[in-house]
Specification:
CATH architecture of the largest domain: 2-Layer Sandwich
Structural class: alpha+beta
Helix content: 10-25%
CATH superfamily of the largest domain: Probable tRNA modification gtpase trme, domain 1
InterPro entries: GcvT (IPR006223), GcvT/YgfZ/DmdA (IPR028896), GcvT/YgfZ_C (IPR029043), GcvT_bac (IPR022903), GcvT_C (IPR013977), GCVT_N (IPR006222), TrmE/GcvT-like (IPR027266)
Radius of gyration: 21 Å
Subunit structure: The glycine cleavage system is composed of four proteins: P, T, L and H.
Function: The glycine cleavage system catalyzes the degradation of glycine.
Enzyme class: transferase
GO cellular component, one term: glycine cleavage complex
Length: about 375
């Protein structure tokens, strides 16, 4: 195992026993796949997959000013979140570029959990700490704590995910699972062979399927994550649950049209270019970091916009490939792959704003060969409700 440069998760030994292929991702030593990328992808679409997401960051924001502080620091109105609910938002710089996209859970009146992406956790943590001082010099009464190393995160995603979780929770937690809505979080108890294990179930995910992300304390009980994985894996056998790596996670999120930081989002990419203008609370907040720049971008319109591209073959457009219109460069692919679910190639790309209408015929330069693609509506795949 490459631990000299990459950090192991609390589940690294489990992945090794399962025969995973590993890669460095955001400074973490993560399972890329256990066997077939496509088989793992299809398991999530048809039954369920289990993922180790312990590389994701967890930042605790608490204190009397926690809601007001997050309203200042992020582009959304986080103070409006109800206890037990979650909200997707963006952490932007002064120029409107996206430092990170993240989910924030409200655990209590003055208690929030902010979940940034793995590689961006240091930058998100630094930005939040810097923003504890407001525009007028007033210091927000908040405490910011990095809980990443103390937290393990496991996701169970797919149509069978609820049924699997109902098999592992204590009887008193059954109603909490079945009544949990999308973008909500609840404390539950999981039964393990060595006793009850308190965890948090969040009905969130990055696959386009129904599913849960499960937070467990990995500091006070350093074996908790492995015990949780084991009981989930055991309960999931009858439901077709399989372990899934980062490769299938990426193809799943691409089909669902979900952005990946470093591809569809970055500090040089603003929310309006990325199709995320709806999360920017210009109407309900008079001041937050990046507001002036974002208001200007919205008024003028972004110089490029993110679109979905598809063709009728499996010849994939990869990140960095040039998008063409009438032989002239008009954009660049940010993510692309053959879609295991749809059976043809799909891609996300930034193009000129006048070329975003679904049905617009474009080409992508696939290693010197212009290949036909068309603009399609996002997401590429939407599960049946």
């Amino acid at each position: 195992m490459n631990t000299e440069e990459s950090k192991p998760t609390p589940l690294t030994a489990v992945h090794e026993r399962l025969g995973a292929s590993f890669t460095d991702f955001g400074g973490w030593w993560m399972p890329l796949r256990y066997g077939s990328d496509v088989a793992e992808h299809k398991a999530v679409r048809e039954s369920a997959g289990i993922f180790d997401l312990s590389h994701m960051g967890e930042i605790s924001v608490t204190g009397p000013d926690a809601g007001a502080f997050l309203d200042h620091a992020l582009v959304g109105r986080l103070s409006a979140i109800e206890v037990g609910k979650a909200k997707y938002s963006l952490l932007c710089n002064e120029q409107g570029g996206v430092i990170d996209d993240l989910i924030t859970y409200r655990l209590g009146a003055d208690d929030f959990l902010v979940v940034p992406n793995a590689a961006n956790t240091p930058a998100a943590l630094a930005a939040l700490r810097e923003r504890t001082t407001g525009f007028d010099g007033e210091v927000f009464d908040v405490t910011i704590e990095d809980r990443t190393a103390a937290t393990a995160l496991i996701a169970v995603q797919g149509p069978a995910s609820e049924a699997i979780l109902l098999e592992v929770v204590a009887p008193e937690s059954t109603d909490a699972v079945t009544s949990l809505r999308y973008y909500a979080i609840v404390d539950v108890v999981v039964n393990t062979p060595s006793g009850e294990l308190p965890v948090k179930f969040a009905r969130t995910g990055y696959t386009g399927e129904d599913g849960f992300e499960i937070y467990v304390d990995a500091q006070d009980d350093d074996g908790a994550a492995e015990r949780l994985w084991t009981v989930l894996e055991s309960a999931g056998q009858a439901h077709g649950l399989v372990p899934c790596g980062l490769a299938s996670r990426d193809s799943l999120r691409l089909e669902a049209g979900m952005p990946l930081h470093g591809h569809e989002l970055s500090e040089q990419i603003d929310p309006y270019s990325a199709g995320l203008g709806m999360v920017v609370a210009l109407k309900s907040k008079e001041a937050f970091v990046g507001r002036d720049a974002l208001a200007q971008i919205k008024e003028n319109g972004p110089a490029r916009k993110l679109v979905g591209l598809a063709n009728d073959t499996k010849r994939a457009a990869r990140p960095g490939y040039t998008v063409l219109h009438n032989g002239e460069p008009v954009g660049e692919v940010t993510s692309g792959a053959p879609s295991p679910t749809l059976g043809h190639a799909i891609a996300l790309a930034f193009v000129s704003p006048d070329l975003t209408e679904p049905g617009t015929e474009l080409e992508v330069d696939l290693r010197g060969k212009p290949t036909a693609f068309r603009v399609v509506e996002l997401p590429f795949y939407k599960r049946a409700r």
